[in-house]
Amino acid sequence: MTAAAPGDCAVKPGRIKQCVAAAARMLRTTAVRLSALYLALFVGSVVLILVVVYRTTAGFLTEEIGETVALEVEAFQDHYGKYGLHGLVDLVRGRSAVVNNNAIYLLTTPTGAVLAGNLSRWPDVAPSDTGWIHFKVADTSGVSNRPSTAQAMTFTLPGHFRLLVGRDMSELDQLSDRMVRSLGWIIAATAMLGLGGGLLVSRGAMRRIEAINRTTRQIMAGDLSDRVPRFGGGDEIDRLAGNLNAMLDRLERLMTGMRQVTDSVAHDLRTPLTRLRSRIELALIHDTDDAEVYRGVLQDSIGEADRLIATFTALLSIAEAESGAKRSDFTAIDLVDVVQLAADLYEPVAEERGQRLVMEIAEGVAPQTVTVRGNGQLLAQAVSNLLDNAIKYTPEGGTITLRLDGAAAGQAARVTVADNGPGVPAEERAKVLQRFVRLDAARASPGNGLGLSLVDAVASLHGARLELSDNQPGLRVALVFPADAKS
Amino acid sequence: MDMKVLVIEDDQQAASYLAKGLKEAGHVVDVANDGKEGLYLAGGEHYDVMVVDRMLPGRDGLSLVQVLRAAGNDTPVLFLSALGSVEDRVKGLKAGGDDYLTKPFAFSELLARIEVLVRRRGASQPQTKLTVADLELDLLARGVKRAGKPIELLPREFALLEYMMRNAGSVVTRTMMLENVWDYHFDPQTNVIDVHIARLRQKIDKDFPTPLIHTVRGAGYSLRAAS
Fold it and tell me: The complex's ipTM?
């Protein structure tokens, strides 16, 4: 680590440059960025809340004042009706004399001369749509020296006398003053809390991400068995960790598989190569003039070479299918054709072995088509491998069924090859899909142990599932295409 | 049938094996070790068939054939390639190749294929009837007769016989039959073709004094009048 610790910056001024760099680096971290975002949101919310509180309170106050004023106006009107102008002047005077109730009254003659009230002159503003007028008055309560806002209702009495009833709104002004004054403090406190909380929260998350990073680095260094720690909360980071672990599991399985394959390839290619080499070598050591001897050895050698080539080709096909690269040139393939062609090719072979090969195309399929997107050659090879296996392992007199079911509601298209041979015990079924694995029962017959592995690889390439089950007796292998493979 | 063959193959040892084998089969062979030389030879002389490696230094086999085809040269071309996937094959045929053989291959396979390519070139206009000795195959009526007697064949047997009769006199290998009759471009483990040929023999040859389907050891089968 070359980053300077915060303490160093204070102690050694010479390292300021480094400290600036460290700070810049820190500013780039997700923790800081997330905190800043968090803080901005936090402050924004607090300001919003204050504004809402102010507006609600002010609205409430204004409304209350409005109601009081309206009631008062009504009372004045009543009074005027009963006692005339003089009664009204007396009442206004009486009310104006009351100190500290924020009330504002003004009664003027049609010419504007003040008859009664605590306002020196008629305010010079036009009433708003709601009938209210807003104006400035010198503070009557003496709390502050500046003019405060007032709002009032005006109306004209018969004889063009004008009456104004209103309220000094200094209370509202004080409220907003106080709010603005406390806003600074509130924001400062919020910022502290937000920044602290944000850092705390995001640093917690970042520490977990850093733990994931550490593990990944270790894995990159070669230790594939390491796993990302999980905290068990089930949140996104935990799910990320879970997915990473699942991916690592799969990778490890693949690696193990590959190592096994490399070992098997070494074994299964080395053994015949050794045989081939020894055979040729022995023929050379064995000094003879008999051309037939050499001819025989050469012929055997070609046979051995051909088997090697076949194994090699099968391995390449599997690798190609597994790489998934062929998916790009998938075309629409009619499974009816694939199945018919394979049945057609193998039917005489089965017959020669005294077996019966029965092709069934599910009702409702023929003469329509069962189309999947895929690689025609690989699908043909998969079906042909399945038939080849079934014929190989089914005794004379056995029956092999090749069946095609079309996709229907809730059911995917499937190709099934069933035989009534010895079958494969349930616990061995996963094993036979592995490369080069040949059950003891199969050792006597020719083959390289790659047939089913290829079928499996082709199935995966097409998103299909390879199902091995008991045909009671015998083996039933089904190639189950995904339900949406229909094109 | 003697042919003049041009082999364009950069691996000198492989090229010399090919040349030796072809010469022993009675053909005249020229060898080019790179695309440039190949193009030069192919442009200057007439060949019956060319065997072209797909990956050549200087100019690769695909573009070499494309250039030849663009110049109006229609000599049959058999591609040899270490790339054996279906797409590679299709690419080769699209570039103007007539056939495609994946390495490693049996020499007999190569020989059979180029012979068929050359003969196909010499074949006359589209026929409606194929005849070999007293065997007749009517492509329109989908009927087969031998010595005037009708023979019942399954559709696939008919296709197999048709392929053999079209290439009568040539050796057709098992792979060629799988490719041309079943469109299988891979090798089924079991010798399925032998069983099909045995069945066909039962129907075509069994009741007649002279067999027409002949086994060619180490290569395949051949349909011809005399042995």
Answer: 0.87
